[in-house]
Records
---
Amino acid sequence: MFTLDENLFIMKFPKIIVALLFAALQATSLTAHADSAKLKPFTSGSYRQLLDAYTDKPLVLMIWSVNCTSCRKKMPVMSELRQRMPEVNLIMLATDDASASEQVDSILTEHKLKQTDNWIFADANPQKLRYEIDPKWYGEVPRTYFIDKNHQRIGISGSIPDEKIEAMIKTILN
Amino acid sequence: MLIPRVLLLFCLFGLNLHPTFTIYSWSNEFEKLRPEQKIFTAAAFGPDGKLWRILPSQQSVSVDYSTDYGKTFSTAARIHLADQSIHLWDENPPSIAVDRKGGVYVLYFADDKQSSTSFFSYSGDGTQFSTPTKISSAADSWYHYQTEMLLDTGGQVHFLWHDLRDRIEYKKLGGGDLSLYYTAIKTDTLGKLPEDKRVAKNICSCCRTAMDKDKDGSLIILARFVYTDNIRDHGLLRISQNKQTSEPWRVTFDDWQIEGCPAHGPALSIGQDGRYHITWFTQGEKRSGLFYASSNDQGKHFSSPMQIGDPDKLPGRADVLALNKEVALVWKVFDGIKTRIESMYSMDSGMQWSPIRTLAESSSQSAHPALITDGKQIYLSWNSLDTGYMLVPVKPADTQ
């Protein structure tokens, strides 16, 4: 079992040190990491929570992996779209295990995608996580869901031509 | 990002919290984030019916054996004394093989100069193992993975892997695929591996490749290729006994067009009668799901694809194994809560099949199912976090 939860701090350190660390982390985040969003652990129930967090809002969920060349090739387009269409709620979910967090983080930074809502698989049974997202999805990546404000969705496996991405986004925004 | 932040913290604030100890603790915590390596076991029978098994942990790989068909196991022998960061996953499992004299051959993956580098080690009797050697000649400079190992009856160990070393060539072609590399070594002259060579191009990078020996002694390889317009269907190729490599030829025609990673490789077994048995997964234009087919003309033509499993339960990760005229199929299904291993059995080289049977189930993370044989029966070899290792005979009890 593994977790990215900051409870790890609490297990290892006395409370006073934990408090100090958190205080310092806050300061660090505000200065050195002003532009970095936190990579969130995607666990059982996260998909539901994610939809709840975007009630009545359209969203694009791009599921990717660090070893997936086709996924990485698509990142500049996603980044560009995000800047050009700020009304799009873009969520990036990496299916790598949590030990790849650093790599995931650096790829997102490289493609200026750190400001998006970023998640990484963090459950010992990834099959369960995939099933909660979509019981018909076998795990191939990239897998992109275009979800309208009523949370009706279309899921597409594989790299999608740029013009189709834009057309799909326009559909869910309407 | 937790760890870089903490390290950064020490740099910025110079906190005097015995940094050496603290950083060490943190790197341990980080290591714990890697999924449990122990479920990625592999097993093979020796000539005396002993079941040999690879037992990975986060830092090392050991080998143990069972003389009672997996009920109890011996004390494990560690392969490499120095710790390594073991790096296996379901499409990148280790391999083990045992020769006629009881020599044990092991392939596993550990992070080295490149992530998940493949290592080979052997032992004359399974007690003491040779210092593991890197299999790829470019292991230090190019990422490679999904290495398969096959020990044949002629005393050769074959290695086949996915290699990124031709990346520049693929960039010109558009990218997304890679090359298959191959080498082999004779069991009576074990030592430095002969120079490896490329045997196929345009292989789908994330789907593991399968291989088996034909009865004419040649090595047959089944892989997911990337064809024109990103069609990811399967092809065969042949490496003859004098190491001549054929051009690959396409054998599945589902037209699965995807610029992406299916992460779902095929399986191949060639029976003593020379019939090729294959299984594969596709979500193609013409066909979608998990399929089986066989060929009695060395892969030139295959039978009509037979769909495997309940399409509503995500059937996948099939393995196939032929033993004389008997053929076993196993695959994974998932209903949202439980993973089950289902099976079908044929007594006539894949012409007719038994009804589906469930062989094992788990509510936790599990490896892909694998089929092994002691020459008398076919067994499912499977591991999951909640059940532990299982060896289950596949043949239905009422089959004659």
---
Amino acid sequence: MPKTPIRFTLNGAETGVFANSGANLLDVLRREAGDLTPKQGCAQGGCGACSVMIDGELHLACLTLAETAEGRRIDTVASLETGARLHPLQKAFAEGFAAQCGFCSPGMIMAAKALLDTTPNPTREQVAEAISGNLCRCTGYEPIINAILTAAAELRGRGAA
Amino acid sequence: MSITVETYPTLREAASAMRDGTRFLGGGTMVVRGLNFGAQTYDRVVRSTDAALRDIRSDGTGLHIGAGVTMAQIMQTASTDFLAPVARAVGGPAVRNMATVGGNLFARAPYGDFGTALLALDATVQMADGQSLAIETFYAHRAGSRGLVAAVTVPRPASGAFRFAKITRTRPKGASLLCIAAHLPGGTRISGARLAFGAMGPTPLRAKEAEAALDGAALDPAGIQRALDTCLNGLDPQDDALASAWYRRAVAPVHLRRLLLGEET
């Protein structure tokens, strides 16, 4: 099978891979670049488990043709923590029981980050809308919405400090 | 299957590269989904980095929207404010950052909400070869079309004259049981109404008898009754995992009534 060289910035690091032509970005991130944080759920855009940021905008890695990532900045949930220090979203998810099996969490947290990047003080409805493309089969969503609102408050507090 | 991906700087070059077994890549929500499951009928993907595909501009007759404009772009642009509720009804935030106006024209039921709105607004589809097609003509010939869509042009409706409702089983995100787009010019007495239904046929379809029945009518229970009685004529809903054709026929007039009377849908 022909391979295509693709270069992009993954979580701040220059990355080069050889991808199967026609592969999606999720496969390339997991198999070639070794970032196992984005998950494959449905592979058809219905579950959001593969949500990543491309140039700061939320995208579904499973529906992104890998070739189109050339030269772009890709951020997965692995970009959020610094060493042992968790991002407020990760901390709020862990402490608020917003993750049970955890499969949806990487995509859910990136969808939440996309919201908070533009809307630091969201309403509950805005949070529900922001995660409407992400399925969770464990929590019933309420702990996730609460965790995102908690993280938003912490991030706002940091901004004021 | 080995896949070939080709990227062209202009849409014209991409158009000339199209042939059998080839799909044009817009936002990827249909083409890459096909590749993921490996049962697709194409092994060649053509894309274009032409910046003109992302253009939104106003001209004398209305708006020019490039085929590569995303749903998110429609929501963020002041001149396309009347289409924002339609764009917002498509997918979740990530899908809306990817899904394009041009791609939506090729979506199969139950998808294609945005195209349904364009049908009610009498949009014109601009093909890459320079041809202009009325959107209804475009849809009628879509199955056999090999051309690339460059843009759509949309006449701007008078304030409040355009209405849209999407009926889903889950909120805020879900695929259409059906959607209805209505262009209702004329104010107190409707003149030249357009009613388009999505997920009520293989492509979005107009309910032309109901449109005619609204001519000169007031938007009150008596004025819209004949439109409700005739709105299913010409529609061709299908069974799918979301709803049966029977159910779609049963509820479509109810939702049309709510939309026309300004009630919650």
---
Amino acid sequence: MEYLSNILFAIVLVAGIGFFTKNVLRLSRNIKLGKDVDVSDNKPQRWKNMAKIALGQTKMVVRPVAGFLHIIVYAGFIIINLEVLEIIIDGLFGTHRIFASLGSVYNLLIGSFEILALLVIVAVVIFWIRRNIIRIKRFVNPEMNGWPKNDGNIILYIELVLMTLFLTMNAADYQLQLLDVPHYAKAGAFPVSQFIASLFSDMSISSLIVLERTAWWLHIIGILCFLNYLYYSKHLHILLAFPNTYYGSLEPKGKLNNLEAITKEVKLMMDPSADPFAAPAEDDSVPEKFGASDVKDLSWVQLLNAYTCTECGRCTSSCPANLTGKKLSPRKIMMDTRDRLEEVGKNIDANKGVFVDDGRQLLGDYITKEELWACTTCNACVEECPVSISPLSIIQDMRRYLVMEQSAAPVELNNMMSNIENNGAPWPYNQMDRLNWVEE
Amino acid sequence: MSNDKLRVPTMGQCMAEGRKPEVLFWVGSAGSFDDRAKKITRAFVKILNKANVDFAVLGTEESCTGDVAKRAGNEFLFQMQALMNIEVLNGYGIKKIVTCDPHSYNCLKNEYPGLGGVYDVIHHTQFIQDLINSGKLNVTGSLYKGKRITFHDPCYLGRANNEYDAPREVLKKTDANIIEMKRNKQTALCCGAGGAQMFKEPEKGDKDVNVLRTEDALRTKPNIIATGCPYCITMMTDGVKNKEKEDIVKVMDIAEIIATAEEL
């Protein structure tokens, strides 16, 4: 019986991490459904981008209020999680505050965790007010109705509960330390929880121990639950922001990739020595589909983008189309891509590892033509994203599908394109008149 | 603007004379055909003439870069245009290109190299800045002294290629009072023409993008809305008309401002 709690703890820990691992594998399988793309270039610059943008939060602070509050929560979670290490060791080996032997360093650590925890609570409350009371526009766009809105709030509630449990645990511990209870050796500094502890001054030692143990257990179970909530939530960004900023584009934002398969065909067309009646080269591969109509046509980096998106809506709040009441919302493009990818993933799971055509696709069933054609390709969404997501690249790939596979461009654009084909300008003017401006 | 004859050699003429100009001026389709944009083209050539720049144009050998087709999703048409243009450009051994159109600039600079067209591509605001800095062009006129000018960043010069300073530095030389809009540089709002929108009706919404952007600009109480893109010029001019302010607010390209400042 002596080791019951240790065994129980080990079971909870293994289950929590095991389930999380299962979801990570599913996540990685889904992302790999995307087309391969070479992102092995310029590693030093990629590490630098990750350090600056994800670790250093440089793009978050472009909007100072949200950026500052976010840094608090971010730092809080990274730093307070050092405490989780101690909790795991204590839980497995039945020790209590194993790092207490660090002495004054330990006091400093626990003290700063407490202050951070308090700041996190303040930040989380402000975040909640921004979402639910002030209702800042980017949090109440139509695509946020339902689950996305609840998801945002659930995350805030979990963070609030976790921080409260952490402080309650420390407060009970502190009170027990004051009462010289054995096993609760004097360790740590409690600049915040000492005030909570004063509320507990009338409690008996046994109830204090129950309180301390309950808070301790709920805290670690809560953390494991939160870890497993990530996969079902927009909150995955706390992990994926790092690879996503690493794999983010290093090119000037204006550069749109050239499709190589098309280069080959165009070169062949333009080659005067090519025999138009020649038998096709012995290449029995399926002709490549141009552009994207479903998630599998996108690159794995674009799919990683979709899982990384935390739906902050900075993109949408800067999108000229969205600002003028058009349906396009770059955030929705990312949310749709993720939702469809999840649907495809579940289809694969349900059909023993093979995707069975479900008659649905990203284009049409999730993203409409109207949204795609409203984009001005201005790169405001790409510029705004704090974690290097490019909604524009998905929009462009889907336009390519519409135009090259379906000839489904708006009629005015078809006119413009036939002008280019016929006379080398988007307007119906003769190429021979190109120099007329000199004499006018 | 005075109507002194412009000196506009073509690459063909230069080749016949056995000389190689230092820089090719890529006029672009808008600059060649759009009545408003042609004025920008002429203004820029006046600057080139005044600074004795050894340049030439392709003239009737120039064709659409294909940029707008690419943005619309027609990669085939883009690459056809690009490969044809690259053949002409490489045939003349062109090394350096200047253009007044940020869309051509972006396309030639970023998308042609992958297809075999590698050039040093410069936007005309950068080129004018270089001319001023190297002393080849002096801006001494006081026509714009104290005038309130706000600069609208073209997306394909600014966000797309990170050039925010050159047009502003050039404007400063006119002693104008430069006032920034609230959304400027990285956060500048698009004029609404990009991504092939120039050639189609906008989707259903509650406002046109160019009107929203013009409101941004008008809030600075400008005498002049300056920009560096022929499409932005069209959109902002329409926006100003929509707000019935065309009598008091002018929309001008940087090249026009410099050319008129010098009474070229």
